[in-house]
């Protein structure tokens, strides 16, 4: 099955999710904030967050690559970077219970955005869609996302469609000023006939949905 059109270049994003040992989260975040610059010297970090609601003891980070050869070169350089290996990797691995990664592309109708200001919160929403790819559900999903944007209560940062990992998965990253601002906006959206109609059309292709409220780390470019 065709995955449908994507951005017309080789740029992709590696989405990494780590489960941290509950008693080690504070130590993990301190180490990341202190030493992540050794990692970002090799490739571009989009954002780094920890979960506040919807998932416990998880961190999410997104890395941008020009193509797969670029990623391979970065991974090779990291394997030979003694400062990265010695000061961060060796220190954080005992704090991590599980690691998961995915490769995803931005959908063709979305450019990676930025929040209007620092200091807000992020919402990471994962949609597991029916098999068939964007050729089947793409337009309905886009209409649903746009309906939420048009209410004006939330800011879209990015829509990512998986290429490696669990297929037919779409991750949507939103920004809001605060959890209460997000809650008030959701109430308005649920009463907006345009949103209700778009969502009803999109959920015909939906198998499951998860979301998490994320807080950006000090070292995260997206704050």
From TrEMBL:
Biological process (GO), any one: mitophagy
InterPro entries registered for this protein in UniProt: Dimeric_a/b-barrel, NIPSNAP, NipSnap_domain
Cellular-component GO terms for this entry: mitochondrion
Domain named NIPSNAP: residues: 13-111, 122-221
Family: Belongs to the NipSnap family.
Tree of life domain: Eukaryota
Name of the featured protein: NPS3A protein
PANTHER family in the record: NIPSNAP-RELATED, PROTEIN NIPSNAP HOMOLOG 3B
